[in-house]
Design goal:
Helix content: 25-40%
Cofactor: Mg(2+)
Shape: globular
Pfam family, one: PGM_PMM_III
Number of helices: 18
Number of domains: 3
Distance between the termini: 52 Å
CATH architecture of the largest domain: 3-Layer(aba) Sandwich
Oligomer: single chain
CATH topology of the largest domain: Alpha-D-Glucose-1,6-Bisphosphate, Chain A, domain 3
Radius of gyration: 23 Å
Family: Belongs to the phosphohexose mutase family.
Strand order of the largest sheet: 2-6-5-3-4-9-8
GO molecular function, one term: magnesium ion binding
CATH class of the largest domain: Alpha Beta
Bound molecules: 1-O-phosphono-alpha-D-glucopyranose, zinc ion
CATH superfamily of the largest domain: Alpha-D-Glucose-1,6-Bisphosphate, subunit A, domain 3
Catalytic activity: alpha-D-glucose 1-phosphate = alpha-D-glucose 6-phosphate
């Protein structure tokens, strides 16, 4: 039986950089999740009888929303739902399942790297048939719908048993509960030389992967330990927990400081890595060396041809605007395309679909390729392992040789979290007003060469996205970028991205913050961060 339930709009359902993210108690309000899910369905056309993929990162409230989504999909006319066992599907695995089974789209329940638990974060994101996040045209339509919604449709049948793999006909719709790992692991075996990696490990190469009690645990256990032969215990914190064990599942140097310290110690393993809440981010640390995501993107792109899935070379590289220009130098040397997009994975979809780019990345620990339409944490780990196996060199050697060949882009991001929203908006607005006056201005020894608010012109669908971040470029190629986060759930987060290029290899071993010191001072002075936010120092430096 289908029920039509009257409802009234909530005023705060605007999707951000990656879907709708709110605290769990917000999502627990009567009709809150239902309104958003119905608004998604109301913004789509032609899905009658088709398949919808549903899965999440296992965080608190995941199973509840999955049951609602299944019943609403049935009531709205989907013919089939594919859902991961236990409600689990990592974001890249969901993307792959959508593509492999030619589903109409998918609902991914996650707040990515944000904490989970009864008072922490939850999120809902819609992905389209290419497996990628819905483009702005659709997210804008979803938001518009949330502001006027007056009813939703839900089928009345008992909760689906998510813990048993199999197919059932419920309320006239097929529900297929699938193994969340199998299809994804098979795809990884196609892309990478598992034999070479297995051989490397059998020769004593030591790796350690921290799944942060989040969704990549089952994937990493199966792939790294079962299939590639890494000793039991190589994958840590592999049980997905609803609150991620109370940790913040964002694989940065603050949250992964234990792994970092271990990797810097004398008896460090050869390779350390971690992924985030929903499995799309990665942290890569070699013995004695942390690899910045921007460098990792450039190095993976430069060496991708060593993996079977990319042996014919790559078509192009795409990076988000705040990501360092290290990848640009690889593209330039190889004579392949380089694309600079706004922050957020959704902007890569068109470039990947059109075959313009093969490898994409963001400074925020996201790297991926055309194999799915999301960033993919384990994919980056496996490509690194494939490269290490073929080159037979250490991470530090590979990074050092890369800098010697291409130069080094010193890079850091300073985040000011939980800033007063008006203060943060004021800071950006005042920078925007100042833009025309900045060229020629001196900050110490630095001279501004250009300044703008980044606009992206999509080469495929010709859409234009304005106001994507304030860029201040200095003579010599250094730059500072300011933007506000679109994924935070408390106040505003100001992100300041700082970059300096150094060609001279005798100057490649300076401590990062020291190498960027004069740019950090310039950023402070041009934006008056202290005066406007009341903060003396960033909350997180990566
Ligand atoms: C952040 C990252 C961005 C990433 C997004 C989703 O968004 O900066 O690169 O795509 O999370 O993982 P932000 O909070 O900056 O809007
Ligand atoms: Zn994520």
């Amino acid at each position: 039986m289908i029920k039509t339930v009257p409802t009234t709009p909530f005023k705060d359902q605007k999707p951000g950089t990656s879907g709708l993210r709110k605290k769990v108690p917000v999502f627990q309000q009567p009709n809150y999740a239902e309104n958003f899910i119905q608004s998604i369905f109301d913004s789509l056309e032609g899905f009658q009888g088709k398949c919808l993929v549903i899965g999440g990162d296992g965080r608190y409230y995941n199973r509840d929303v999955i049951q609602k989504a299944i019943k609403m999909a049935a009531a709205n006319g989907f013919g089939k739902v594919m859902v991961g066992k236990g409600g689990i599907l990592s974001t890249p695995a969901a993307s792959h399942v959508i593509r492999k089974y030619k589903a109409f789209g998918g609902i991914v329940l996650s707040a990515s790297h944000n904490p989970g638990g009864p008072t922490e974060d939850f999120g809902i994101k819609y992905n389209i048939g290419n497996g990628g996040p819905a483009p702005e045209k659709i997210t804008d339509a979803i938001y518009a719908r949330t502001t006027i919604i007056d009813h939703y449709k839900i089928a009345d049948f008992p909760d689906v048993n998510l813990d048993r793999i199999g197919r059932d006909d419920v309320g006239g719709m097929i529900v297929s509960v699938i193994d969340p790992v199998e299809d994804y692991a098979a795809l990884m075996e196609e892309l990478f030389d598992f034999g070479a990696i297995r051989n490397l490990i059998s020769l004593g190469f030591r790796l350690c992967f921290d799944a942060m009690s989040a969704v990549t645990g089952p994937y990493a256990k199966d792939i790294l330990e079962n299939r590639l032969g890494a000793p039991t215990g190589s994958v840590r914190n592999f049980m997905p927990l609803p609150d991620f064990g109370g940790h913040h599942p964002d694989p940065n140097l603050v949250n992964c400081h234990e792994l970092y310290e271990e990797m810097m110690s004398d008896d460090a393993p050869d390779f350390g890595a971690a992924s985030d809440g929903d499995g799309d981010r990665n942290l890569i640390i070699g013995k004695g060396i942390y690899v910045t995501p921007s460098d990792s993107l450039a190095i993976l792109a430069a060496n991708a041809n060593l993996a079977p899935g990319y042996s014919h070379g790559i078509a192009g590289i795409a990076r988000s605007m705040p990501t360092s220009g290290a990848a640009d130098r690889v593209a330039e040397k190889r004579g392949i395309g380089i694309y600079e997009t706004p922050t957020g994975w959704k902007f890569f979809g068109n470039l990947l679909d059109a075959g313009l780019a093969t490898i994409c990345g963001e400074e925020s620990s996201g790297t991926g390729s055309s194999h799915v339409r999301e960033k993919d944490g384990l994919w980056a780990v496996l490509l690194w392992l494939n490269i290490l196996a073929v080159r037979g060199e250490s991470v530090a050697d590979i990074v050092g040789q890369h800098w010697a060949a291409y130069g080094r882009n010193y890079y850091s991001r300073h985040d000011y979290e939980g800033v007063d929203t008006d203060a943060a908006n004021g800071l950006i607005a005042s920078l925007r007003d100042k833009l025309p006056t900045l060229p020629g201005t001196k900050f110490g020894d630095l001279t501004v060469s250009a300044a703008d608010d980044f606009s992206y012109h999509d080469p495929v669908d010709k859409s234009v996205s304005n106001n994507q971040g304030i860029r201040i470029l200095f003579e010599g190629g250094s730059r500072v970028v300011f933007r506000l986060s679109g994924t935070g759930t408390t106040g505003a987060t100001l992100r300041v991205y700082i970059e300096r290029y150094e060609a001279d290899s005798t100057r490649h071993n300076i401590e990062t913050q020291e190498a960027l010191a004069d740019l950090i001072v310039a950023a402070q002075s041009v934006a008056d961060i202290r005066g406007r936010t009341g903060r003396d120092a960033p909350t997180v430096i990566t």
